[in-house]
Amino acid sequence: MKVQSSKHAPAGFKQGFKVQSPKNLFYIIAVIYCLLPVFSFAETREFTLTVTDGEIELNDTKFTVWKYNDMFPGPEIRVKEGDIVTVKVLNKSSVNHGFFFHGLHVGARVAEQEQKIVIEPGYEYTYGPFAAKPSGTHLYHCSFNMAEHLSRGMYGAFIVEAKDEPKFDKELVYIISDWNSKDAKGGVSHGTGHPMSIMDNDVFTINDKVITKDTPIVIDAKKGEKIRVRLANIGHLPHKLTSNKDFTITHEDGYPSPEPKRQNSITIYPGKRHDIVIT
To answer: How far apart are CA 204 and CA 186, in angstroms?
Structure first.
């Protein structure tokens, strides 16, 4: 595109540019129009998470935890791909905390915030802004003394819906974790989240429900329904999930599977996320 300086700029104004032909004017309009969706259609989403001291009961054992917005797990954050996101964290608990966007491409500035910012009791910090990407199933969690804080329930789902999000009759989000009942009762000397402790984790949860052979998760599915289940393992151990009905694994860590597989079981390793579809 050719432009040239205006030879007769009014006094008091900096020289600008003038277009040589209507054809060039069309090019300028076309370029601006192409850029508009990047800025005009991205919604700004602001979230606030308040951290407090808390307690939960799993299998008749009380666990000391920290909660986001008085919830365990923390509240689901759900945005659309490309939305501009900020997350304010208010620390009303008794210990230091940080924050991490697990699986999201947040850019160098926010990555530095994740690494360096420590929020002391009584203080707050706003992370971002960043454009939500990639689409898929992700997580957020504390980044300070991470092993212990994950073991104390400091996590939640962060869902980024794709621009061409497919339709389902139902969608379920399941966060898997594991806990040490002996540690909760004061019977472990290594401390919560210590490698010597997590190998003995003996309580397993999906969201806030304890899972055993006798108390499985039951999905109410009607004939002909198409159901997506977003699975994420925030625990310290790998977990194998089995189903009495085959399902298709469509995504791993937010990305489409190159060869979707149909099976009736899946092993999910720590930090991994999988989307499955039941039909």
So the answer is: 19
Tokens at 79, concatenated: 């945005």
CA distances from 87 to 13, 191, 240 (A): 42, 30, 33
Distance CA 107, CA 112 (A): 9
- Spatial CB neighbours of 263, under 8 Å, sequence gap ≥ 6: 246, 247, 249
253-274 per-position pLDDT tens digit: 999 999 898 999 999 999 999 9
CB–CB of 236/203 below 8 Å? Answer: no
Residue from 222, 141, 199 nearest 175 by CA? 141
Mean pLDDT along residues 58-71? 96
Taking only Cα atoms into account, the Rg of the chain, rounded to an integer number of angstroms, comes to 24
Closest CA to 192 of 147, 247, 255: 147
Q: Alpha-carbon distance 230 to 210, whole Å?
A: 18
Residue 24 pLDDT grade (very low, low, confident, very high; cuts 50, 70, 90): low
Asked whether 130 and 110 are in contact (CB, 8 A), the reply is yes
Could you count the other beta carbons within 10 Å of the beta carbon of residue 11? 4
For residue 202, give Cα distances in angstroms to 59, 176, 179, 183: 10, 13, 6, 10
Q: CB-based contacts of 124: which residues, under 8 Å, 6+ apart? A: 88, 89, 90, 91
3-class SS at 51?
strand
What's the whole-model pTM score?
0.82
pLDDT tens, position by position, 167-214: 999 999 999 999 999 989 887 767 888 888 888 899 999 999 999 989
